[in-house]
Amino acid sequence: MGLFSIFGRTAPAKVPTDRIVPLRYWDDLHYLRSICHDFTLRFDDVLDVSNLEASLARLMEIGDWGQLGARLRLNAKGKLEYHIPVRYDEERPGFVFTTSKYDMSIQDHPLGSQLPGANQDQSFLSPSSETFAPLVRHPDSPKELADWIYTDRPQLHIHVTLFQDTTLLTLSYVHTFSDAISRTNFLNAWLAVLRGRECDIPAFLPYDLDPLRKLGREASGKNYSNFRRLLTGFSLIIFGVRLLFEMYWFRNVEEHPIRLPKRCVGRMRTKVLEKLAAADPKGVEMPFVSEGDVIISWWVKTLTSALKVAPDRTIMVMNVFNIWSLFPECFPHGAAGFISNGFFYSYTLLTASKVRKDTNLDYVASTNRKALLEHRTRDQVQAMTALQRAAFMQAAPVVGDSKLLFMAATNQHKARYFELDFSAAVVSPGVPLNKRPHALGRPSYINDIEYSQNYPTRNIVRIIGKDAAGDWHLLFKTRAAAWPAIHTQLMELIKMET
Q1: InterPro entries per the record (predicted)?
Q2: Is 208 a catalytic residue?
Q3: Same-domain status, 181 and 52
């Protein structure tokens, strides 16, 4: 069974009555196996824990939603598969639900008082998300694939931390379970039960149906727009060696949350649009530039400066996008009941010297948007997935040159985490409604701990989304030594916009 069996870990015996279903093709990828999450919603309200648990249990009884309680197993061929119980009981539940209760305000708790909220103080760097693991996790919460395949635990572990004025709701799962958007699909189904609106729950797309399984099967990778710039052979080896050197020489990596105020993002976007309009007064080729484009541009420029990237170096920014809307025929009843992974990549190639000189961010923002428009088409997704199918361990392609600096950005704003409405479970408000921007039962902060096993996750930004005040929440991960420079640039941006 691999390394874990050497240390005495073996998979549980098969249960004869379990239904066995292979994971969908795009769920059982090496890097998805390598990443697990503790995804925490902070509520400045007291939620009814028993109501939360009962409504989730009820969801598991509706249609095929009970398949979420499947157990993960690794078969003899090294492939992951679901073992779906016929029914759930106390011995084999459909999910694990645990709680911790503190008879105090979160502000009186040594660790809880440091957890950022809606009005995150940015005069100092907030602790990394992982700092709060002892607060948001149960001691038995899983955090690597082995914790699932060598036990009989279901896919989801829900842990609720309850204070007198705050509730922290955490979902622990491996990335094979869900991407950022379908995570919201799951939460919305749970909320429909909580609100007494079972009629609003979409049909769960059963695990034995794989709507995206044909992607790239009959396409040619040669049709990919960046085919001539793919890193292969010796160039790919050189890139890998440079990456390994980076990981060895700069071993310490830190991830910190950042809140970009609404006024800062708005002002930056206005400058971008003004600059693009001046360059194209008739608006013939002026691309649409979103707030997300501007935020990613600011992150690229900030990181390029903080890392002191050589002027002649190529920067490759890998953006993640969801593809459901591109292939509606794969989801004839919509994708609201699809709990799985359905994302692929757009690649933006930049020159470090131009990034450093891009005062108004128009170069990075417009280049990033054009690359997204180029990649987010049916034909390009088919070509990219053809390449990925043929790659070692189905890894996504890398484009540019052997000296490129790899960056990655995932904008999860479309998941609308801050708009999730748990008001039906609220027992009492923890913070008076007139002293906060968010409504009753809406999250005020998201803490997302990402555990990565043997998979490099540096120079990454995760845009968690926009809160009720219009402020944007981000998670940066990069060299520890770069953080003083990053924080300085953040404070300059905030002070300049005051």
Answers
A1: CAT-like_dom_sf (IPR023213)
A2: no
A3: yes
